[in-house]
Amino acid sequence: MNGEARKQTPNFIRAIMTADLESGKHTTIITRFPPEPNGYLHVGHAKAICLNFGLAAEFGGRTHLRFDDTNPTKEEQEYVDSILTDVRWLGFDWGEHLYYASDYFDRMHEWAVRLIRDGKAYVDDQSADAIRLTRGTLTEPGVESPHRNRSVEENLDLFERMRKGEFPDGSRVLRAKIDMASPNLNLRDPVMVRILHASHHRTGDRWCIYPMYDWAHGLEDSIEGITHSICTLEFEDHRPLYDWFLDRLGVHHPRQIEFARLNLNYTVMSKRKLLELVEKKIVDGWDDPRMPTLSGLRRRGYTPESIRDFADKIGVAKRDSTVDVALLEYCIREDLNRSAPRVMAVLRPLRVVIENYPEGQTEWLDAVNNPEDPSAGTRKVPFSRELLIERDDFREDPPKEFFRLAPGREVRLRYAYFIRCTEVEKDAATGEVTGLRCTYDPATRGGDAPDGRKVKSTLHWLSEAHARPAEARLYDRLFSVPEPDADKETDFKTHLNPSSLEVVDCRVEPSAADAGPGDRFQFERLGYFCVDSRVSVPGRPVFNRTVTLKDTWARVEKKMQAKKQ
Ligand code: ATP
Ligand code: MG
Predict the structure, then answer these.
(1) Of the ligands numbered here, which is closest to the C-alpha atom of 231?
(2) Which of 425, 448, 452, 488 is placed for a possible disulfide with 435 were both Cys, Cβ 3.0 to 4.6 Å?
(3) Which domains does the chain possess?
């Protein structure tokens, strides 16, 4: 999108920005997206990215991409790289404005010293446990640290020695001197800086003290001249602290605005849980197509447009809620319906011999590439005597509502002819249907009968000799319950959907066989598929099912529920 403004549904953050420009408080809008490089971005982050970049672009402002890399133990270059890739893929451009919180460590340090000099911060020798235990509760005030009233000189000396590495991890911290009786627990002398002898992915061993989120974040925003610092609701109670630090320092003071984070049903979004799935090899990496990560969605076949459209549709609110993952699926279906070329593929082949069709003959029939897009044109598909159809499209003993092929019944083969089933071949031992004998009506070429007779269904098919082998990976939701992490007592992994992946050897028409990584198709009547970007090989493409054509899961679920009642 690169700066081009998009029209979005109204939201309260836009209203604040408009007012700030009108009142002259700001002349431009500067937002930031501040990921911590401790995992891959997921669709929740996409909401924050679209919001920050989208709004700033609308006002002709800009958005910074800033790595909030203040915790050396969990952060890695791999995550930095993936985040850059994913934000760019989603369609946003930070231009020159790529920043790292770790570049500000010196300035943050100077500011910490300044607060010490002003009597607003002190070194506490208590352990983390002791600090937690003396914090008090919502109904009881906290207990002041015995070190709270140290002299400025002693604090400066101890803080300098913390920086030099004289003390072990956890032995001392720098705390803000605010109010141990504040009704807001975040203001009860929060920890600003801790000792951590750990190598940082950018600053190496230069520092053995690291700033805490609440201390660091406002400073990062201030240094960059951010006007509106948009974050999720859980930081609402931290805002007084954000304001306190910036007010005490008397520096540029952005306005923090909170919005409701995205929660999706049938999904976990916590980076810790996603990491666990990756580390325990329950999924095939951060970009497993079942993951809610942007790299997973990309590999699955989602387009950036569909995710931006989703972010737009869910809007921005002040109250937490859960969005139905069906909405995300709807967005990609809509997009691919417009853009994906149609091809024919058969997932579970059943052989059909057309008895009255000449042996050895091949006809190349015209097939429409995309009925939604006439400019996509047509292609030729081969028809011959031996065909493959979908096993599911035949029933020897069809139930009342089954309109596809059955003994004696006539159906249409898409772009080809009407065929009628004349005989069913079975395995003598197992009774399994092994093939069908059919006849075709040459007068129905192209799919219509000159005598006006109708058929109730149209099937996709392949010419057996021309069909090319491929692998299809049929994905379903990773979890089988709507709220996999709702119950804190139960391990979220117990709710994994055992059939979230089914791999089938399938066949595809020649035009799809040479598709390359990332190519997207609609397999007629089956769903949207995308060539896998990791394991696909020429001659045997691997297709990831992005989404089915209709929401089959909802139907199955409805049935299951109906049965239970
Ligand atoms: P954690 O801080 O627990 O590691 P996080 O998901 O908050 O995880 P960050 O890297 O801090 O990860 O997130 C970067 C930005 O993305 C933050 O500004 C945060 O508000 C936003 N964000 C994260 N998760 C969501 C979500 N589910 N919905 C909307 N925004 C989100
Ligand atoms: Mg965070």
Answers:
(1) 1
(2) 425
(3) 1-96+260-339 (3.40.50.620), 342-564 (2.40.240.10)
